[in-house]
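Entry 14. Ran structure prediction on the chain below.
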Amino acid sequence: DVRSGAHELSTGDTQVCLKSFDVASRAVGGVLNAVDGVMSGKLNRAFCAVRPPGHHARPAQGMGFCLFNNVAIGARYAQRKHGAGKVLIVDWDVHHGNGTQDIFNEDGSVLFFSTHQSPWYPYTGHAEEVGQGKGKGCIINQPLPAGSGMKEIGAAFLDRLIPAAQKFKPDLVMISAGFDSRVGDPLGQFQLTDPDFAVLTQWLMQFASETCGGRLVSVLEGGYNVGGLAAGVCAHVRALLGD
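Output, structure tokens:
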């Protein structure tokens, strides 16, 4: 029983307690509800303010404060429940989404794009990691040095992400929206500002509008400066609302 044995399931930096399974399950459920709303046409876009985050969670192991990989589960759910053939996942967290990459590394139906600080935890996401088998070419990593900001990340979006995504033609866009890439976060050294998050959001909204009927689901990932997290999320959500 997961609940009675929770104290035995710690995975290094990811501690669990008796309530962890229920809380993490509710986070996943929130993402599935958002996917239902967007794929059914009831919603144009959705933002999932969930905890714990998920992009480090691997197929059989939690790590990096993550228990279940919320965005990966949401992508697969969109495919199986709603017939989405292809899903684009864009991860702008300061840390590489190693769990998401592991899950879809040999898949081919999910295009995973990540900008992240390197070298930095979890010390994966090298440029030469491009997927294997059916998934070869469907993993795009853009490792960047500490101090990188909109100049570098924006260029990666425009020069690498958008052309690849246009060729891929997804049926749904999902964002692993980590705000530890914001200036001042204690667990990263990226320099994105609130207006930068708004612009990145607008670019992805425009792409989704042109490619997949505007269908977009954003899922909260990291962010460890509470005030900065709130401000970044606010800028992101305002952009999603069209403000």
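DSSP finds six helices and six strands in the chain. Will compare against last week's run tomorrow.
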